[in-house]
Design brief:
Elements (H helix, E strand, L loop, with lengths): L1 H21 L8 H20 L4
């Protein structure tokens, strides 16, 4: 369950960075971080969903 929540948090952080960069509130060059965080968070959430909780 913790991996699912951490993966979802990474995806939400990536989306928030993308929105802030789109609104030009933060440096647009940091957009690469959101493109990295979203797939990593998705993979972690999927792994957490299919792995057995101990």
């Amino acid at each position: 369950m913790k991996k699912i929540m951490f993966g979802n948090s990474l995806m939400l952080l990536g989306i928030a960075i993308m929105i802030l960069a789109g609104l030009e509130l933060i440096y647009i060059g940091i957009m690469w971080a959101s493109f990295l965080l979203i797939p990593v968070g998705f993979i972690m959430a999927v792994i957490g969903f299919f792995s057995k909780d101990s």
